[in-house]
Each structure stands twice: as C-alpha cells, then as structure tokens.
Amino acid sequence: MASSFGAAQVLVASNRGPVSYEVGEDGSLRARRGGGGLVSGLSAIGPEAGALWVCSALSDGDREAVRRGAGEDGVRMLDIPADVHADAYNGIANSVLWFVHHMLYQTPLEPVFDAEFRRQWASYETYNRAFAEALAEEAAQGAAVLVQDYHLTLVPGMLRELRPDLRIGHFSHTPWAPPEYFAMLPGDIAAQVLRGMLGADRLGFLTRRWADAFTACCERFAGGLGDTAVGVHGLGADADFLRARSHEADVEERIVALRAEIGEGRRTIVRVDRTELSKNIVRGLLAYRQLLDDHPEWRERVVHVAFAYPSRQDLAVYRDYTAEVQRVAEEINERYGTPGWRPVVLHVKDDFARSLAAYRLADVALVNPIRDGMNLVAKEVPVVSDGACALVLSREAGAHEELGEDAITVNPYDVVETSRALHEALTMSGDERADRTKRLAAAATALPPARWFLDQLDALREGPVSR
Ligand code: F6P
C-alpha cells in the first residue's frame, strides 16, 4: 500500500508519451510534441484538471531529460533501464503480444516460447511494475487512471493491489485475438495477461468485434469477466484540426511538389502507413501491378502514391519487410515505367504535411490491412480530400465496422479482388464518389478524439466500482 497519496486526479499511462527530447549540438534539450487522440483528449479536460501522463523514456534525449529533471509539466517519464525496456517493448509487446492480436505468426516455425521468452517476460513484468508503482505514487485518493495498450496489460492488476481506492481503466488500441489464436500463448502467461487486464474497473476497445474477442478469451481462460465492465469507443478523426492543418502553407508546398511527381492529369491511388507488418503494403503493390496487367488502359494514367514510414526498425522482421516494400515498388517501376511516368511514387521519410497533401490529392485511398485496431487513415482521407475520394477498405480494419457501407470492401489476402476494387474505385462516377465521401466523412468524425476521451473518463468515474 502506498504510504501517501499523490496529487493527480486523472492519469494516463502509455509506453510512448506526448513529448520526446533530442539533445542539440550545443547540449540543449529540444522537445518535440506528438499528436493523436489522447493528446487532444487530455487537452480537452483543461490544465486545471490535475492530469498527469506517465510514459517511458524512449530515446537518449528522453533519458537525459529525466536526468536533468527537465521534463514538461504534466508528464512523468520513467527511466526504465534500457535493456529491460528493450526486452519488454521489442521482445514481448511488439514481437509477441502485437503478433498474437494481429495474428501475424508464420506458424510452422513461430512462435517458440523458450527460456529466452521467459527471460524477456520477466522484463515485461518489471516494466509493468515500474508503471504501476509510479501511478500509485502520483495518484490522488480515488483518482481515475487510464492505462493504454498491450504494453501495459499487467498494470491494472498490479495497481489495484497497490491502490484499491483508484478507478482504473484500460484501453486497447489494437485488435484482440480470438480465443483459438490467443491460446497459442503459454497457459500461465495467457492467464496472467487476462488477470492483469481484469484488475481494471473498465476496459475499452475500438470496436465491438475486439471487445467480444476479449470477452470470449476471458470466458474460456479466466472464468469470465468478473466485475470488470467492457465498453466500445470507436475513435474518430479530428475534423477541425485536420481541415485547418491541411490548408497550411507547408501542405500547399507539398501539393505542388507531389503534383510534379505524379504528372499532369493522372489519377492517384494513395496509401499512408507506418511500415508495419499488419498494414499489408506489399499485397497492395501486387494488387496495383495486377491492375496494370488486367487494365493496360490505366498505364500512364494512374500513379500509386505510397507513403510507408519507418517503424520498429530494431526488429529484423520489420527491416526485412521495409526492404520488401521497396523491392516490389522498384520492380513495378522498372517493368511498367516509361520516360514520363513513374507508376509507384514511394516515400519512406515521415512527413505529416506531405501525408496531408496526398490525402487532399487522392482519387482512391487504399487501406487494406491484414488486421487493424481501427485505422485512422481510412477516416482521415474522406475528411481532407479536395475532390472526393473512393475508399478501398479491408474488412479486417476496425474502421470497416463504421465505414463499410460506403467503402469498397476487400479481403486483404485476395490480390485479384483488391485489383478489381481499385478499378471499380477509379471508374466510380464523380457524383457517387462525392456522395460516398460525404457519408464517409460524417461516419469518420462521429466520435472526435476529445469526446472519445471524455466518454471513457465519465464512464470510468460514474460506473460501478469493480470491487
Ligand atoms: O495501434 C496501437 C499503437 O500502440 C498505437 O497507439 C500507436 O500508433 C502504435 O501502436 C505505436 O507504435 P510504436 O509506439 O511502437 O511506434
């Protein structure tokens, strides 16, 4: 039991925080702020709400900021030893739990739960405990704590033991695995994950499908949900922010540059992703190649604008995947390209302004993940697009639950079907595209980030206490 209570009334806990630091050449620290649903949610409750964000120090700059005590108000970064963090984040969270929930294993050879896995699991426990202890120290009596994601599944249970007075919520930004797939985890580990989560008063998921999968896992492996409530909060796009940001000068500049790369009068098929195994970028390229084979009339008249930004490059499997995306894009350009036409315009350097420029120029958006918690790109493009945009959308994206009716649905594994969907999207009449885009934008913005966050906070504060 914590000996004294802290001052924070609302606490958010996540691996990646709202700010990161770099040490400049002159030794000074430069802060960079991130965006996203949680950032706008927390700003919506105002500075007087007594909010604190607990996160990990991720970079050398972050660790230096912790050492110098230079962190921002409202943020507490945990300087967890780098090797413990690497085992927990790369070894367990991203290589095991992410793979299980996105069903990414090539099962003939993986996963292998050996002694090395057990060693890394112990680091995952240590890392979760560091969060639980920091939250227990900082939280005021009866405060609300909102724990985020698969990195921190053990925190609710650990925190409940340290501080039974708190209101504890947990939100999953990923899918949840169906019981047959979840059962791949060693039995004691599966039980520990579920018990950890069930330490919360309330669990949030992005779609009904993921919430039901979690409930099914609990019924099968944990004797049910117990007193824990489960809610669905489908994070939407931030229309006001996106519309304003996408008309700033840097975006206009990127539009001019992109138009020059695309060429006059050509249609665009746009995708913007982190280079993430679940995003299915390679099959997207194969579908585009199929389109050029089946419909030679599109040659020289369309460009696939593919932005694939680096992600989790500490993991070999992500580096290999990044190389494969580049290889297939180059192969298409070599085989089909002409002196005046580059069929695939691939960019790998993260540039938010250029992403917005591509959204504005898109005739077709391709969002074809193998499995995805929500996929905000599918929601953002219809809001930002200048001239109306047809959406080709995987049935396995969480966003499909809300956008499916006005999108062209694809099975992400079926490259032929995806190429046909691209053709259908490119040939859709302007009127139909405009009507669908309007409805897609309305559905995509139904639950803006601030409301999404406040709904969870209200439900956590007003709902029954689980113990
Ligand atoms: O989709 C789950 C999620 O945790 C998101 O909240 C976030 O966009 C991403 O994964 C984080 O990835 P990372 O911090 O590993 O770059």
In short:
By secondary structure, the chain is an alpha/beta fold. It has two domains: 242 residues, Rossmann fold (3-Layer(aba) Sandwich), CATH 3.40.50; 206 residues, Rossmann fold (3-Layer(aba) Sandwich). It contains 18 helices and 15 strands.
Describe the model.
- The protein is an alpha/beta fold and 467 residues long.
- The protein folds into 2 domains: 8-235 and 449-462, Glycogen Phosphorylase B (Rossmann fold), CATH 3.40.50; 239-444, Glycogen Phosphorylase B (Rossmann fold, 3-Layer(aba) Sandwich), CATH 3.40.50.
- 47% of the residues lie in helices and 18% in strands.
- The protein has helices at residues 37-44, 60-68, 82-102, 115-138, 155-162, 179-182, 187-197, 208-221, 239-245, 249-262, 281-294, 316-336, 352-361, 376-384, 400-403, 415-427, 430-444, 449-462; strands at 8-14, 19-23, 29-33, 51-56, 75-78, 139-148, 167-171, 202-205, 229-232, 267-274, 302-309, 344-347, 364-367, 390-394, 408-410.
- Strands 5-4-1-6-7-8-9 form a 7-stranded parallel sheet, sandwiched between helices. A 6-stranded parallel sheet has the order 12-11-10-13-14-15, with helices on both faces. It has a two-stranded antiparallel ribbon with strand order 2-3.
- Helix 5 (155-162) links the parallel strand 6 (139-148) and strand 7.
- The longest helix has 24 residues, at 115-138.
- The radius of gyration is 23 Å and the shape is globular.
- The two termini are 16 Å apart.
- The model has no long low-confidence stretch (mean pLDDT 96).
- Bound molecules: 6-O-phosphono-beta-D-fructofuranose.
